[in-house]
C-alpha cells in the first residue's frame, strides 16, 4: 500500500510538472524584430535590457534589412538620441582594417533578456545579457589569433584605458555631461593599438566581458558592477533577466486570437518597458537638472517623451505598476525643484523641450484623478502653472515667455504667419519646426484644463477660473465656415491655407484633418462647433475617406510623420490614437469597433513592417496593448476607458493589488468584431465605457460578439462617455 501511495505521488508530481511545462511563457511570443524597418521614418530597435532600467543594448545597423552590424553600444543613454561607448569583437591580421569594420551577421537570436549572433566571415559568436546598471558579453572567436575587442567613443570626446591585464575603464562626454564605464574580463588582455576615440584590445580566443555604466564616476561604475554581477556566471545573470521579463509579461494573459496577434500583443507590451529608466546607482544619482550628485534611496527616472507617452503609455502603467508610475512623476517634480522648470522631454542630459503642449499636466492630473496620490500635488501644480503662464509655449522651447506668449495670454490664440511672411521672433525655430500656431493653441487648451482641475483640488478658485477659461481657447481657432481648426494672424484674420497640405507653420507633425479632433477635454463643445453630433459623425467618417489630394511623395514632403494613412487619418502618429474611439461619443460605437479592428489588422502585423510610424519607446505600442485588450483611455485626466473591440476571447489583468480584471469575449474573431451586448459584474452594461475605479477594484466584463453591428448598443446620448469640460471640472465625478 505504501508503495502504491509513493508511485501515485510520483505520478501526480510528474503530471503537475508536465502541465507546468505545457504552459507557454508569454515572453516566448515577443519578437523584437517586429517593426525593424521604418515605414517612412525610424525603425524599432531590438533593445536588450531589464524593464525600465539603465542598460539598453542593441546591434547598431541601418535597420533590420541591413545585414551588417557596426557595433553594440554599452548603453543607450537616451532613446534614439544618444548612445554611449561602442563595443565590437573583430578579427583580422591587419589591425588597420578593423577600425571601422562592419560585421555581417548570418544568425541571430533576439529576446528582451538575451542576444546572440554570429559575426563576420569567421562566425565569431557574441552573446549578451543585461542587469540594471551593468551588462555581460561572452565572446567566442573561431580562430586562435588576431582577435580583438574594439571599444570606441561615440560622442564629443573621452578616453578608454587598459587599467591592467583584466580591467578596462572609460569616460565619454556628451551633451554637457559625462558617462563612465568600468569593465572586467575573465582572461588576460593587452592593448594592441590605440587610435583617436578608439582602442583595439588584443583578446584570447574565448573571453567574457562584464561592465557597468555610471554617470557619477569610474569608481561608482565599479561599485555598480560589484553589486550586480560579482561573479562570472553568465547563465545566472541571464536567468535573472528572464525572470524579470517573465514577471511583467505574465501580468496580462490572453486567450484566443491568432499566433500572429499574440506576437504583436506581447511584443508591444515588451516595448512599453523600454522607458523611463531609473538612473539611481545604488543610493546616489547624478542629475543634469542642477547639475549635482544626490544621495537618495528613491528611483530617479529619466528619458521620457511626454508628448508621445502621456496618451497611452502612462495610463497603461498606472494600471500595471502604479507605484513605479508615481516614482516617475516624483522624478519630474524633483527635476522642477532642481532646475526651475517642469521638464517637457526629461532626458538624461536635461530637458529636451520637444514638440508642443504642457502635457506633464495631463499625465499628473490623470494619475491624481485615478487615485494615485503619492506625489506632492502642490509642488507639481506650482511647476505646471509656471510653465503655462511664465514659460514660452513655442515648440521646441522651454524658458522665459516671448512676445508671442504675451499675445497668447491676451488674445487666447497663437498667431500664425501668412505664407511668405518673414519670421521676426528670434526664439522660433525657423527652418523646420516654425510656430505650429494652431497646435500650440489646441494642446495648451487641453493642458490648461487639467491645470485648472488641479487648482480646484488645491482650493485655488482664482487659478481654477483662469485656467478653465484658458481651456476654451480652442474655440478661437475653429473656423465654422470651413469646419476646421484654422490659423489666424495677429489681427484676427483667417490665413489662407489648404487643410490637407498645411505643415508645421500651423500644425505639429500632422495637418488640420487630425488636429480637428484633439480637443480631448470638451468633445461636446467641439461637436457643437461642428454643428452637432450627427454632423460631427459625418465629418469623422470623411476623415477616413478623404483622399490626399496629391501624390503621396508630395504629401509626405510636408507631412513625413503622417504614416499609416487611411484617407486623411494617420495611424502612425500619436495625436490620432484616440480618434477612432470618438464614435462612442457620437452614438455610433459600432463604428469604433469596425475602425479599431481594421486599423489593428492593417497596420500592426508580426513582421519587419509591423509598426506604421515612429514607435517612440512605447508611445505607439501602448495603443496596441490597450486596443487589442478592447479599451482605451481617450482623455488623460478623465479616469474612464472607452470600449473598442476586444481581439482576444479572454484577457486577464493581474493587478498589483492582487485583484483581477477580466474581459471575456468568447466568440470574438475576425468576423465577430461587433459588440452585441455586455455585462459588468453580471449587470447589463449598455454604455461604451467604464471607470478606472471599476477596473482596479477587480471586475469582469462579458461581451457577446457578432458579425453584424448592433447599432443600438451604447447609442443613446446618455450612454456617451463624459466629455463636457463645463461639468467635469466642477464635479470631478465619474
Key terms:
734 residues; alpha+beta; six-stranded mixed β-sheet
Task: Tell me what the structure shows.
The chain is of the alpha+beta class. 30% of the residues lie in helices and 22% in strands. The strands form nine sheets. The protein has a nine-stranded antiparallel β-sheet with strand order 1-4-5-6-7-14-11-10-9. Strands 15-29-30-34-31-32 form a six-stranded mixed β-sheet. Its cofactor is Ca(2+). Residues 220-707 form the Glycosyl hydrolase family domain. Keywords: Calcium, Hydrolase, Signal. This is GH92 family glycosyl hydrolase.
Summarize this, please?
This protein is an alpha+beta fold and 734 residues long. The protein contains 20 helices and 34 strands.
Ends: how far apart?
A: 64 Å
% residues in beta strands: 15-25%
The structural class is: alpha+beta
What is the count of DSSP helices, taking H or I runs of 4+ residues?
A: 20
Task: Walk me through the topology.
Blueprint: H1 2-22, E1 68-69, E2 72-78, E3 82-91, E4 103-110, E5 115-119, E6 124-130, E7 134-140, E8 147-152, E9 157-164, E10 167-174, E11 177-185, E12 190-195, E13 198-202, E14 206-214, H2 218-228, H3 234-249, E15 252-255, H4 259-271, E16 277-278, E17 284-287, E18 292-295, E19 301-302, E20 304-305, H5 306-309, H6 313-320, H7 322-339, E21 345-347, E22 350-351, H8 360-369, H9 377-389, H10 403-411, H11 437-457, H12 461-470, E23 478-479, E24 484-485, H13 512-515, H14 523-529, H15 533-543, H16 552-558, E25 565-566, E26 569-570, H17 589-603, H18 621-629, E27 631-632, E28 640-643, E29 650-654, E30 660-664, E31 674-680, E32 683-684, E33 689-691, H19 692-696, E34 699-706, H20 725-731
Parallel strand pairs: 30-34
Antiparallel strand pairs: 1-4, 2-3, 3-8, 4-5, 5-6, 6-7, 7-14, 8-13, 9-10, 10-11, 11-14, 12-13, 15-29, 16-19, 17-18, 20-21, 21-22, 23-24, 25-26, 27-28, 28-33, 29-30, 31-32, 31-34
Helix pairs in contact: 4-18, 6-7, 7-8, 8-9, 8-11, 9-11, 11-12
InterPro entries: 6-hairpin_glycosidase_sf, GH-type_carb-bd, GH92_a_mannosidase_put, GH92_N, Glyco_hydro_92, PNGase
Protein name: GH92 family glycosyl hydrolase
Cofactor: Ca(2+)
